Amino acid sequence: MKINKNSTIPAVKMEMDGAKDVTMKVLIGPKDGSQNIIMRYFRIFPGGHTPLHEHNFEHIIKVEKGNGLAIDENGKEHKITEGQSIFVESNKRHQFRNNSSEPFEFTCAILNQEAISYPLSPSPCPQKP
Q: Does any domain span residue 125?
């Protein structure tokens, strides 16, 4: 068993085309011996967003703090808030945005990509302001 203290894990700025004011922590991952799954923690600062993208694996999201928008494959905006969970299907375009004045934070569990080679595919669609 591996137990990590989340507050001691460093956050890294998401340096990806289409990302704005987003940090990520890997709470549990390959360095912890996880062979199948990775748990990540995202913080999106006010006005920030993840890239509008898709990839070939599912993931689950649990909103931990604040509120924001989940953009689906049709461009529809869904208001999401603390206490809600989201399932994102494989190969479905999506994005998360913070349209509030406070940080928007969520955990995200995905398959361990260390053993799987995949490209993260930013969408050719323009970002909304």
A: no
